[in-house]
Amino acid sequence: PEWYLTQVLMWIGNHAKFLDDKIQPILDKAGSSVNAGLEFSRALVMLILEKLAADIPCLLYDDALFCHLVDEVLLFERELYSVHGYLSSFPSCMHILSEESCFQRWLTVEKKFALQKMDSMLSSEAAWVSQYKDITDVDEMKVPDCAETFMTLLLVITDRYKNLPTASRKLQFLGLQKELVDDFRIRLTQVMKEETRASLGFRYCAILNAVNYIATVLADWADNV
Questions:
Q1: Where is average pLDDT lowest: 37-46, 94-103, 119-128, 147-156?
Q2: How far apart are the C-alpha atoms of 57 and 51, rounded to whole Å?
Q3: The dihedral of CA 62, 64, 68, 74: what is its sign?
Q4: Where a domain ends, among 83, 98, 113?
Q5: pTM (2 decimals)?
Q6: Taking 70 as the threshold, does the pLDDT of residue 77 lie above it?
Q7: Which residues contact 48 (CB under 8 A, 6 or more apart)?
Q8: Is the pLDDT of residue 136 over 60?
Q9: Which of the 8 DSSP states describes residue 166?
Q10: What is the biggest distance separating any 2 CA atoms in the chain, rounded to whole angstroms?
Q11: Transmembrane residues, as ranges (predicted)?
């Protein structure tokens, strides 16, 4: 997908000056409120939507290819809005990703890869060690690596779904994040039970620091609608 997504971004960028310098003055002179650059972008995005609608059913049950498609679409959307000033009221790829069959697959794949990431972060040798253990002024909370990586994982998921067009879809992703928080809590509890005989031991203290850090960050995020 990156081939045709990149091609469209190149066309938008390469035609911007011509549209602004040559076409827009004609529209302005005619008293039209149309923005030539945005209309050009909108027409090309409609082609993308047609292409995605044809591609997605073929990729739906190949996790690697489907995940790659979603990643590329999210990168495309980010550049479309931040670099080319595309309007949120216009049709976008997020509408295609929000369609029921595609969206449910996206949620499933997102959960699968998140759980795999949690498995690897907790089985890592550095799971209970702080990345900043040697820098005193940065490491006041003594946050173990697994807790920091987990919160980064949640933040990345938020970044991926925040531009979905409807609140109901965003809430379904929030539900996934709540499941992951509860799953992480259960994993911490399991590790803690193994450490109860050494409640002042290194790992037991690291678990308490992890819980404190996660609670603090979630409280900080409470103002983020």
A1: 119-128
A2: 11
A3: positive
A4: 98
A5: 0.86
A6: yes
A7: 4, 5, 8, 76, 93
A8: no
A9: -
A10: 82
A11: none
